[in-house]
Write a structure and sequence with these properties.
269 residues; 15% strand; 39% helix; globular; alpha/beta; 8-stranded parallel β-sheet; single chain; TIM Barrel
Length: 269
């Protein structure tokens, strides 16, 4: 999701997802999802810690990346962690390289399915599909294809732009109705205060943060030395993050709540 701007609150929209997800109308719901799981061992370890010891609730696995096998081993070991498949068409890193799982001549028609099936082949069950470095797949036809795959596999999809968001609502499928935050859009300096302010200002309804934690050996070599991932990890696992969530009355959820409704309201035939 790197470099994608923040989607700002739609204050005219009622908290419709609260109703279909079974929460009170005034509930302030927040998906905190760790993207890029499987990209690098320093990311993998930080993601697990951010979920098990911090305020993150789920993650998204890049099955094409160098540390994907390590990530899948961690998911088997930490079986309570909910995760999605971070569908990947872009390799933005000059240092870490990855490519499609499908043969070159079949990539246009099979690659997303191959990335999902790589998880199934590892005896793991995802909750949702989302996209690496592309908002809603980048094109309407890619989003439609992904929604079709989600129906087939019984998964939810991260959708946060119009008109896709409007179309999913028309189908009775819950998507965010307020802020979508890509943590790469936040300045690293004073990040904890930025996050605290976002929690304080969070409106009723469903919002999502796509965060990118990394820590330990190798973390500083990612993203050209930018401290985005290190500062994400520091906040997510801090006592002040847990205190802020409790103080503001924010309910952090994961994609399992959305998956149940998507699976019920989409045609899997």
């Amino acid at each position: 999701m790197d470099g994608i701007p923040v989607a700002h609150p739609d204050t005219a929209s009622p908290p419709w997802p609260n109703q279909v997800l079974g929460f009170p109308p005034g509930a302030r719901l927040l998906l905190v999802n760790c993207d890029d799981f499987g990209m690098h061992p320093a990311i993998n370890a930080a993601v697990v810690e951010s979920i098990e010891e911090g305020i993150a609730a789920s993650c998204s696995l890049m099955t094409v990346c160098p540390a994907a096998a390590d990530a899948m081993r961690l998911l088997r070991r930490h079986s309570a962690i909910p995760f999605g498949v971070h569908l990947t068409l872009v390799c933005e890193s000059s240092r870490l390289r990855w490519g499609p799982l499908s043969p070159a001549d079949t990539v246009p028609s099979t690659e997303f399915r191959a990335q999902i099936d790589a998880v199934a082949d590892a005896w793991l069950s995802p909750t949702h599909l989302d996209f690496h470095c592309l908002a809603d797949g980048g094109r309407a036809d890619i989003l439609d294809l992904t929604v079709g795959l989600a129906a087939e596999y019984g998964l939810a999809v991260r959708v946060w732009l119009e008109p896709g968001r409007r179309e999913m609502r028309r189908r009775g499928l819950p998507v965010v109705d307020h802020v979508f935050l890509d943590s790469f859009s936040l300045p690293a300096e004073g990040k904890a205060e930025h996050y605290r302010r976002l929690l304080h200002d969070l409106p009723a309804g469903l919002s999502e943060w796509a965060v990118h934690p990394a820590a330990g050996r190798g973390a500083e070599t990612l993203d050209g030395g930018r401290p985005v991932r290190r500062t994400d990890h520091a906040f997510l696992t801090s006592p002040e993050a847990r205190e802020a969530v409790a103080r503001e009355g924010v309910t952090v959820i994961d994609y399992r709540a959305l998956q149940r409704v998507w699976a019920r309201n989409t045609d899997r035939g």
